[in-house]
Amino acid sequence: MEKLEIDGASIALDDEGYLEDLSQWQPAVAEHLAAQEGIELTDAHWEILYLLRDFYSRFEHSPAMRPLVKAVKLELGEDKGKSIYLMKLFPGSPAKLGALLAGLPKPDNCL
Amino acid sequence: MIFSLVVQASPVQSQGAETALRFARALLASGHSIHRVFFYRDGIHNGTALASPPQDEANIPAQWQALAKEHQLDLVVCIAAAVRRGVMNEHEAKRYAKDNANLAPEFELSGLGQLVEACLVSDRVITFGGRS
Amino acid sequence: MSETSILILMRSAPYGSSAARDALDAALTCSVFEAPVTLLFMDDAVYQLLKNQSPAGIGQKNLNAIQQSLPLYDIDRLCVDQSALSHRGLSEEQLSLPVESVDAAAIARLMAEHTHVMSF
Amino acid sequence: MILHTLNQAPSNKACLESCLEAMAPEDSLLLIEDGVYWLQPPFRDLLPAEGKLFALTPDIQARGLEIALEQQVDDAGFVELSVSHDKVVSWF
Q1: Is-contact D36 D68, C-beta < 8 A?
Q2: Contact B88, B44 (CB under 8 A)
Q3: What is the pLDDT along chain C (120 residues), one digit of tens a residue?
Q4: Mutating which of C29, C32, C116 best tests the B interface, going by the most B Cβ atoms within 10 A?
Q5: Measured between alpha carbons, how far is A26 from A24 in angstroms, rounded to an integer?
Q6: What's the sign of the alpha-carbon dihedral D76, D81, D83, D89?
Q7: By its UniProt entry, which InterPro entries does this protein fall under (chain A) (predicted)?
Q8: CA A53 distance to own-chain centroid
Q9: Which of D33, D34, D88, D91 to mutate to test the interface with B (most CBs of B within 10 A)?
Q10: In contact, B5 and B33? CB cutoff 8 Å
Q11: Taking CA B39 as the corner, what is the angle to CA D15 and CA C81, rounded to the nearest 5 degrees?
Q12: Chains touching chain B at 3 or more Cβ pairs under 8 angstroms?
């Protein structure tokens, strides 16, 4: 099992890269995980990551793509609430990669 | 006609799984096709390879396996429901660092999307339940 | 019928069994596949919608939280059996989300209108 | 036109009541598993009229019930009913 070492703390990841213990998340964890994916986190990334964490705290699950897009549209406006915008920030599967970087469980209802 | 069956009943504790099995046989005998049998909730226990009832009692999981072999049935076990209950194939056993896998090879682990897809392509979707 | 629609029929109270969670998970997945889905609450399932649930003490997730996300999944039609509510001395104001109250004839219509009915 | 199946014994009266509430006049009811006990005389009046009422023979025989119901069906009959109706709704 993979481990991240951040500020002396050892953070265990499951075999898909999600945190074993969600309470260990902090912004530095997201930066490390993003770097592994070849992503440098910008403000545009962070507002989505915090939106995801807010989604999780309100609804107790990680969103699939469709509700993620809708939540972004409601919170951040029409321009950002599009899958193409999220795909640019989090290539591949924004719902999965976003949840991973935001320190959330892997979304259940993905295709 | 294209049918899909949803089995929510566990193989021993309620009758529903056996009813579903008989219905599946009758469907095939009347020339209808079964797109998929989706096992959800405690129904996922039908997928175990380890069921070992006494030799003079019905082995429902083994009967699904035999029927699947004979008719190339698509038997899909809900992955989230199964992994929660400790039923998994080699791949998931490895992922969760378990020593053993116990899903019979005739069954496939997949997501609830397979249930919805079955609804989209089937003329009839019939649920076989046990209580709660 | 051109579009396949799904009616999810729920009859169980929350927490005492996994039925409510399992039904909701199926409903959310329908939305991911863009299949129109309607939820129908009968019998003890009307208790699923009561406000102020707080299941941390029994180690379960809060159903109200998942329910609040339903509009984001475009699941907007929550139908509640009027007689199930009144039998239990409940009113719509006690529920966590806006619902459509349905009588026997409307329930029969719902079942007829949807392509498939999935029971939990 | 819907085929409703019901597998609960008379102790679960709410299950039958909800099923009957949801049934349209043109719908049919198929009693399976423990649902066949509803055919016993004390409960019979609650059920839809013959013509709209079916029961699964293996379940009646298994339980040692003597029931006078014209429309008993075997598994193949269950299949035919599910084809002749537009959909199947399960009550359990």
Answers
A1: no
A2: no
A3: 459 999 999 999 999 999 999 999 999 999 989 999 999 999 999 999 999 999 999 999 999 999 999 999 999 999 999 999 999 999 999 999 999 999 999 999 999 999 999 999
A4: C116
A5: 7
A6: negative
A7: DsrC-like_C (IPR042072), DsrC-like_dom_sf (IPR025526), DsrC-like_N (IPR043163), DsrC/TusE (IPR007453)
A8: 8
A9: D33
A10: no
A11: 30
A12: A, C, D
Domain count, chain B: 1
Q: What is the H or E stretch that residue B119 is in?
A: helix B113-121
| In the block, residue with structure tokens 């116990």 | B102
CB contact under 8 A, D89 and C11: no
We report the CATH number of the domain holding residue B103 as: 3.40.1260.10
* CA gap A45, A89 in Å, rounded: 6
Q: Which residues of A touch C69 (CB under 8 A)?
A: 55, 58-59, 61, 63, 67
Find the domain containing D76 and state its range: 2-90
Q: What is the ipTM of this complex?
A: 0.94
Q: Give the position of tokens 């049934």.
A: D23
B132 confidence band (pLDDT: 50, 70, 90):
low
Is C1 within the bounds of a domain?
no
A66–C32 CB contact, under 8 Å: yes
Nearest to B8 by CA among B116, B113, B115, B88: B115
pLDDT single digits (tens) B20-55? 999 999 999 999 999 999 999 999 999 999 999 999
pTM reported for the whole predicted model: 0.96
Q: Please tell me the total count of domains within chain C.
A: 1
- Give the pair of three-digit tokens for residue D28: 């049919």
What is the DSSP code (8-state) at residue D48? Answer: P
Tokens standing for B71?
């008719």
Q: Which fold has domain A43-101?
A: Arc Repressor Mutant, subunit A (1.10.10)
Across the interface, whether the CB atoms of C32 and A65 are under 8 A apart is answered yes
